[in-house]
Amino acid sequence: MIQDGNGLRFSADELARRLVGTGARSGPLYRQLSDSLAELIERGELPPGSALPPERALSEALTVSRTTVVAAYQALREKGQLERRQGSGTRVAPDRNRETVSGLAGDHAASQFLSGPLATIDFATAALPSLDLVADVAAGLTRDDYLRLTSTHHGYHLRGLPALRERIARWYSDAGTATAPEDILITSGAQQALELVARGCLQPGDGVIVEQPTYRGALEAFARTGSRLRTVRIDERGLDVAALERLLTNESPRLVYVQAAAHNPTGVVLADDRRQRLAKLLDQHEVVLVDDTSLAGTAFDGRTTPAALGTHERLITIGSMSKLFWGGLRLGWIRAVPQVVSRFARVRGITDLGSSLVAQEVALRLLDHRATAETERRTALPVGLRTLTELLGRHLPDWSWQDPQAGASLWVRLPHGDATHFAQIALRYGVALLPGAVFSADGSTDHHTRLPYALPPATLTQGVTRLAQAWTDYLNRTTVDVTLTSAVT
């Protein structure tokens, strides 16, 4: 996506990624496409003046005929949502009745949650199901508990419920990293923690180094600050710390974002020797290091590393209740030195006066059951992984992957083509999945896709079976394209 003199201009591949999970699931293809584009326009993700790609380019990205795209564009022009401008192609028409905020335009991690459940098999999200103990603990709160919670304070705890901050601090300290309640800021999930870090640490033009691939929500948070993103690859042992060190020596980035405890989307756990070398970089380079430990507690070998990199004045650790317990709690935290916590609290106070005290009270009690939760995840996740990989081996034997060590998703490499185009075919077979490009700062991982395995076996079976059918269709289409191209040349 680039900015031209009249508005945003979207490439065909970028628009194809935004279209995943939108629109109708039945009817003529041109109508499905026009409905999907209309949905993006109405949500503000394609703001007025945005330039859409040419029909031929979009048809190739979506693996449909050019006639389908022409008909979809024409249907939206007839509804007044698109217009054809001489010399500038097809653009989203102005809408005097709709308030538009250009800053909202864009593909983002929340897209799959905006329109409710998909009328299909959802492989686009990798959220873990809630543990039963969440309901058990929440149901244990009594009227006296609520009275105590509501009568002792006005309800606004910008830094978080004191008892919860103290409990999280004690957990870090018990794990070997001395922590005080003043080092903890409770947030409404890890995503808000990332937004606070980005707004509190970065200015337009600042350099940020991220892993390749990485968590897409982090990419979005940093991009919104106008930062310049650079990447360092990961392998089966995690972040290539030697490559990071060379980049830090040659450049002067403001911030480095890593996931040492467990990596999303690959499930890799950073090797101990690399972890030690990474921690030492803070003493050698003036850089802020952000360690996102949202997946801590899902490691298959039972290792829990809440603060794997120790403590430092420029180290910021992000934690979350979402992966281990339940995303619906919307509870996360930042661990940093008190001065940094105070800065983030001031930034947070501009838009948010604190997270739900009821959710924090539930979280406080859930932390007493952390070992039980980790055991449940450690038992269930490898079973789901084994089910998924057996299905892939049976139905899609040419797909490849490195077995994860944690988390709830498998990072799969396609043997041919790219996932942005394949995702469109998969959707027609009733499976929504994300192309790997959305987990990359430069889109270079589009030969991968992420598949969740914390799903019921029946859902995994049906989903992989449909993916196999879609893959056969995709290969037939690309073979035809290659044959035609060869004949022309």
From TrEMBL:
Stretches for region Disordered: 81-102
Keywords from the UniProt entry: DNA-binding, Pyridoxal phosphate, Transcription, Transcription regulation
InterPro entries: Aminotransferase_I/II_large (IPR004839), HTH_trans_reg/aminotransferase (IPR051446), PyrdxlP-dep_Trfase (IPR015424), PyrdxlP-dep_Trfase_major (IPR015421), PyrdxlP-dep_Trfase_small (IPR015422), Tscrpt_reg_HTH_GntR (IPR000524), WH-like_DNA-bd_sf (IPR036388), WH_DNA-bd_sf (IPR036390)
Domain HTH gntR-type residues, every copy: 27-95
Annotated Pfam families: Aminotran_1_2 (PF00155), GntR (PF00392)
GO-annotated molecular function: DNA binding
The UniProt record lists the keyword Hydrolase: no
Keyword Protein transport: no
Similarity annotation: In the C-terminal section; belongs to the class-I pyridoxal-phosphate-dependent aminotransferase family.
Protein's name in the database: DNA-binding transcriptional MocR family regulator
The species this protein was found in: Kribbella aluminosa
